[in-house]
Specification:
Blueprint lengths: L10 E3 L17 E5 L5 H16 L4 H15 L9 E5 L18
Parallel strand pairs: 1-2
Antiparallel strand pairs: 2-3
Length: 107
């Protein structure tokens, strides 16, 4: 993934037990969001909908992750599901200030 002109700044692994081994991706991608255990399809769908909507609206990756966790907790009967999406990042990256989408006025 780092063999591109503009390597990705974020990789989302929205599947069961993807957090294990995700650190191996950090040399190529500075932030990885992955699931720390088995995840129900419903929780994965709710996570993706909210996370990507928040990122697309200009929220930081950290805020988008928090919003997605809240939506999972509200939508899924298994309340521990909101703890499944986790992130790992390089030491020099702060996900609370990492914004991937900027409005035209900001560019």
């Amino acid at each position: 993934m780092d063999a591109t002109d503009e390597p990705p700044r974020l990789l989302v692994l929205n599947a069961c037990d993807t957090l294990d081994g995700a650190s191996a991706i950090l040399p190529a991608v500075p932030v990885v969001i992955a699931m720390s255990d088995a995840v129900l399809d419903t929780a994965a769908i709710v996570f993706a909908q909210q996370f990507y909507a928040a990122v697309a609206s200009g929220q930081s990756v950290g805020s988008a992750l928090k919003q997605a966790r809240v939506r999972i907790e509200a939508a899924v009967i298994d309340k521990t599901a909101s703890e499944l999406p986790q992130h790992i990042s390089r030491d020099d990256i702060d996900i609370d200030t990492l914004v991937l989408v900027r409005s035209v006025a900001e560019v």
